[in-house]
Amino acid sequence: MDHAENSLRKALANKQAAVDAQGKINKASIEKQLQATVSGAISREAFGQCVVNTLERFVFYIPSVKIYHGVAKLYDGPSGRTIELNILF
Question: Origin, by domain of life (predicted)?
Fold first, then answer.
């Protein structure tokens, strides 16, 4: 039983390390995009696209067409309509 438990612990540790590494990569990418935006290297449209990509990646909002395959330009999620009104347009 100890051998099985040890192998499970090692597998869990490996998976946790992979998740942590991916999180660091994502964080670095987001920080790089934000830094470029703050320095003025990115246009307003590119900044908006960066915000949209980040919000979609964390499923904060989702365009309805991706869920229901219906009308475009409608948004679902906890704050989909608020984001649509205040950030996207």
Answer: Eukaryota
Together in a domain, 32 and 53: no
Higher model confidence: residue 53 or residue 73? Answer: 53
Q: Which domain holds residue 26?
A: 1-39
Q: Which of 72, 74, 67, 44 is nearest to 85 (CA)?
A: 74
Domains contained in the chain, number? 2
Give the pLDDT score at 78.
Answer: 64
Identify whether the C-beta of residue 83 lies closer than 8 Å to the C-beta of residue 61: yes
Write down the pTM of the prediction. Answer: 0.41
d(CA 56, CA 75): 11
Instruction: Find where tokens 């475009």 sit.
Output: 72
Q: Tokens 């935006």 — which residue? A: 37
